[in-house]
Design brief:
45% of the residues lie in helices and 21% in strands. The protein is built from 4 helices and 4 strands, in the order E-H-E-H-E-E-H-H.
Amino acid sequence: MAAVRMYCTGSCPYCVMAERLLTAKKVAIEKIRVDLDPEKRGEMMQLTGRRTVPQIYIGETHVGGYDDLADLDQAGKLDDMLRG
């Protein structure tokens, strides 16, 4: 399985939905809470160019947010990405 890293906050409903989708696929997620660490929010913004959460990486590939993750799943591409 590819490593999954997700920049998130504790109160974001899209973060919860992304976590549910990935957990249903039996994926371990490294969650980086940007609401608890302002430096991590800055890191996320520098890496992705985006301010919103979640921001999801599968391996070294930036997937985007929850909508992007769900689109990959609908297109049948997410499982292949997760396999690495």
